[in-house]
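Checklist before submission:
- one chain only
- standard amino acids only
- sequence pasted in full

Submission:
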Amino acid sequence: MKKKAIAVVAGACALGMLLAGCGGSGDSNASGNVITAFNSEPQNALIPGDTNETGGGKVGQLLFANLVRYDSKGDTKMEVADSIEPNKDATQYTVKLKDGWKFTDGTPVTAESFTKSWSYTANAKNAQKCSSFFSMIKGYDDLQKDGLKGDEQLSGLKVVDDKTFTVDLTQPDSVFPTKVGYLAFAPLPESFYKDPKAFGEKPVGNGMYKLDKWDHNSQIVLTKNADYKGDEKPKNDGVTFKIYTSSDSAYADVQAGNLDVMDTVPASDTKTFEKDPSVEAYNKAGSVIQTFTIPAGMKHWETNTKEGQLRRQALSMAIDREQIVSKVLNGVGTPATDFTAPVIPGYSKDLKNGKYLKADPTEAKKLWAQAEAISKWDGTLTFSFNADGGAQPIYDAIVNQVKNNLGIKAATNPMPTFQEFRNAVSERKIDGAFRTGWQPDYPSAENYLYQLYDSDAADGHGSNDGDYKNADVDELLSKAAAATDSDEQIDLYHQTEEILLEQLPAIPLYYSNANGVAAKGVKGFEMDWQNQPIYANMTK
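Returned file contents:
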């Protein structure tokens, strides 16, 4: 394969990017053993291959079951797949499905449910945000050409029978059996292709829950799927995601017992939430990395020029991450030392060029002066973010540090909602720095590095929102994909990160703890390796 990965944002395809906030929202009319949960309005329709942010990802993960699933620790378990077997050099996989899986419309989940779905997402005509996830499958490049109808299939996918298909890759990929648990790899029923737009409003899945209704900007109501064939059944009767535009109001609802769970804590409450008697608190080391991105081609800041690299290095060294974590986050986080996260295999505190993530105002000024000697820049660096996600205090602190430590003009540029902000990012309308972050989709450094920094994931084909391109990074990620020895693979990831630390296509800030709160009386509240509540285990 060429490389891989994703987004969350976060999911997904993802995350990567971050949660919006809260502000209240409609009445689900839910009673009994139904969990109400905090969420933001999804950026797009609820189509797995077009979901790469957490608002939609949280919902999609409950509506669809993939070939494999990840348990609370991030270990991979077989789900719809009975087996995923590689050939000798991991360039071909044979996938066999379990019997009895059905979509909630009663139609069977077959091999073609996967191959058609993957091909649809990969096909450039369909403009799906998670397209680059399939770049390792043979035929992907053919589906990026002009003049497609949208129904062309990946040539590397072959249906053997209803329960078996093969996957031919362009190069070895030892991570493939893990990554297929990501939402973008979900199967789709035939009804999807008849009317994708209508499907996105009321998707038909094969997961733990099914969608009852989506009242936009108010709530998304899921009910338990009685026909779900997975090993771990939901312990509740449903999950209703309530849409908020302010995390403070969501927290107040949890305190009052009007909301059962939220997977974040407002900055104003981080100092006190663990001692708050009106909530059940959770706070442990997590997997989400918070960054900000500057477009790779922004004038005077280009990642492929000495001037641009010097400015990015100076900017990064003007930021005191320790102070932000202690004073703004009240300790609910860890200063970043690399581009992955502490719970991910291969995480490191000692990479070459790691010095650029440490505050040093004196050195920052020297680097800035070197950049100015190449070419003068007298603009104002703006930092854009969604105002509904609790990021204002963080970016206020960053702007103050940059102005004080670097002596340049800087300003915040809050945008009202997560959806509006992400649309501006997706449409490349932001000229300046903008908030980014990553909630991993599977527990591998590859998930953080490929989808965010590989050329294949740029230009709207993935979550490389800064459109950063570096042939050496691409080659190292390809070699890592082919490596079957974990130590060799991690060494290649480290080499990749050393380039990223020099060029800084995004500037790592800190790793978010998995922290959140549940209302009193809610049982089974814990958070998983993705910093997400395990919704199916919660009861009340």
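Reviewer check: The first strand starts at residue 8 and ends at 12.
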